[in-house]
Automatic annotation (TrEMBL):
It is a multi-pass membrane protein. Signal peptide: none annotated. Keywords: Cell membrane, Membrane, Transmembrane, Transmembrane helix, Transport. Belongs to the amino acid-polyamine-organocation (APC) superfamily. L-type amino acid transporter (LAT) (TC 2.A.3.8) family. This is Amino acid permease. It comes from the Eukaryota. It is found in: Cell membrane. GO terms for molecular function: L-amino acid transmembrane transporter activity. The chain crosses the membrane at residues 37-57, 69-93, 105-127, 147-172, 192-211, 261-281, 308-330, 381-402, 414-433, 439-459.
Length: 491
């Protein structure tokens, strides 16, 4: 997996060059990603990913697991708390290890190359493309839903729209980072606007006296710890994204200041909006109505907004579209850093000199995301990807504790109280162990796919004296990627 490949150059000068031995950076002789992200862009990236599709689909997953209105709201508050303490830990990690790649970089620094490779392997085979698929499917369902009011939305239509959306946003992210981030800034306000509209309508509805859904709010609450853990996974998925700015630390201006500020602004705002939005949903829809709906925000609008309900799916579609765009951009940097370290084929560490984007990584993740669209069951996909991701997030925070012990003198511009990472690790352990009883298949598949990375690591990375046949296969893949990447767009 460390096959060297030559410089790629078009006759028109549009190049794709490895970040090794390039003349474009006089100090390090490497092509580098530009520092184009300020505080506003950092907040937009975090909010853009978090305010993606989760809040419009996971309320159904939570309510059907906990069986009560009151405890579902408790789950939303606790998931916000968990995200906040996790984000505090990542603020320390991101400023102590100021490298792009997020969890991959932290696990690599703390525990070495094999665990880091397993994270990269699991991320690119499970939770990154799965999350892209979930966001693409959510966007597609909300776009198509208004055309099928009295019947079920055709699954092939949803899948086709999701495919087109993922491919288009991959192209857009490869074309220009600056243009993409400007678009995401605009979409951030559209997403907040969609949720504010839901909240305002819900508050007005409750002020008119419609509070009957909150009577005996905790009646029927499940006592099954496995079901509670699965409910938390749905909530955690809605909050997922609070650590994605850490994937782009090298592109963030003044990261020691802007990284923690972006986190401190984003997470409390998200928690407040999520809790209020769920109160709005629950004030209008009964738990049974929520569980029967595939597009909760659309059902909510149909109940209370009449002919103006068409605004809801438009705003939700914009939210999912923008969230998917941010997720594609941020996750490609993680793959780029892994390839740069020799853990994936080196062609994935190339940067287009015209656009300064990691085009090969974007294309590779695009293909894997399309594969994940074979399943259209969003809630199964959520459980499947969140269990594996939660393990590696826990491992990253455990790395913070390890560094405190092994490298106490390491400069830490931000240093959280030691209780914070300890509490986070304990909660993650509960959330990882309990679902084994309720979702053994999903857990087992996640473990198997992750462990399959061990032979891949020793064959692809550690085994340096590979036979010539393997080198020829890699050369063919390199030739194919050259032909594809030489068609890269001009600015």
């Amino acid at each position: 997996m460390t096959q060297k490949i030559p410089e790629l150059q078009c006759p028109d000068g549009n190049k794709l060059i490895s970040p090794i031995n390039s003349p474009l950076d006089e100090d390090s002789q490497k092509v580098k990603l530009k520092k184009e992200l300020g505080l506003l862009e950092g907040v937009a990236i975090i909010l853009g990913i978090i305010f993606g599709s989760g809040i419009f689909i996971t309320p159904k997953g939570i309510i059907q697991e906990v069986d009560s209105v009151g405890f579902s709201l408790v789950v939303w508050v606790l998931c916000g708390f968990l995200s906040m303490i996790g984000a505090l830990c990542y603020a320390e990690l991101g400023t102590a290890i100021p490298k792009s790649g997020g969890d991959y970089a932290y696990i690599y620094e703390c525990f070495g190359p094999l665990p880091a490779f397993l994270y990269l392997w699991a991320a690119n085979l499970i939770f990154v493309p799965t999350t892209n698929a979930i966001m693409g499917l959510t966007f597609a369902k909300y776009v198509i839903q208004p055309f099928f009011i009295k019947c079920d939305v055709p699954t092939p239509s949803v899948t086709l729209v999701a495919i087109v959306t993922i491919c288009f946003l991959t192209f857009l992210n490869g074309y220009n980072v600056k243009a993409t981030t400007k678009m995401q800034n605009i979409f951030m306000f559209s997403k907040v606007g969609a949720l504010v509209l839901v909240i305002v309508v819900g508050i007005v509805w409750m002020c008119l006296g419609h509070t009957e859904n909150f009577h005996n709010a905790f009646e029927g609450t499940t006592e099954n710890p496995g079901k509670i853990a699965k409910a938390f996974y749905s909530g955690i998925f809605s909050y997922s994204g609070w650590n994605y700015l850490n994937f782009m630390t090298e592109e963030l201006k003044n990261p020691f200041v802007n990284l923690p500020r972006a986190i401190y602004i984003s997470i409390p705002l998200v928690t407040l909006i999520y809790v209020l939005a769920n109160m709005a949903y629950l004030s209008v829809l009964t738990p049974d109505a929520m569980m029967a709906s595939d597009a909760i925000a659309v059902t909510f609008g149909d109940y209370v907004m009449g002919k103006y309900a068409v605004v809801i799916p438009i705003l939700v579609a914009i939210s999912a579209f923008g969230g998917l765009s941010v997720h594609i951009m941020a996750s490609s940097r993680m793959l780029f850093v892994g390839a740069r370290n020799g853990h994936f084929p080196e062609c994935l560490a190339h940067i287009n000199v015209k656009t300064f984007t990691p085009l090969p990584s974007l294309i590779f993740l695009n293909l894997l995301s399309l594969v994940m669209l074979v399943s259209s069951d969003i809630h199964q996909l959520i459980t499947y990807c969140t269990i594996v991701e939660s393990f590696f997030v826990m491992l990253s925070v455990a790395g913070l504790l390890y560094l405190r012990w092994k490298q106490p003198e390491l400069p830490r511009p931000i240093k959280v109280n030691i209780i914070v990472p300890i509490v986070f690790v304990i909660i993650c352990l509960f959330l990882i162990v309990m679902p084994c009883l309720e979702a053994p298949f999903e857990v087992g598949m996640g473990v198997l796919i992750t462990l399959s990375g061990i032979p891949a690591y020793y064959i692809g990375v550690k085994w340096t004296d590979k036979p010539s046949a393997f080198a020829q296969i890699m050369k063919k893949f390199t030739t194919i990627s050259q032909k594809l990447l030489l068609a890269a767009p001009e600015e």
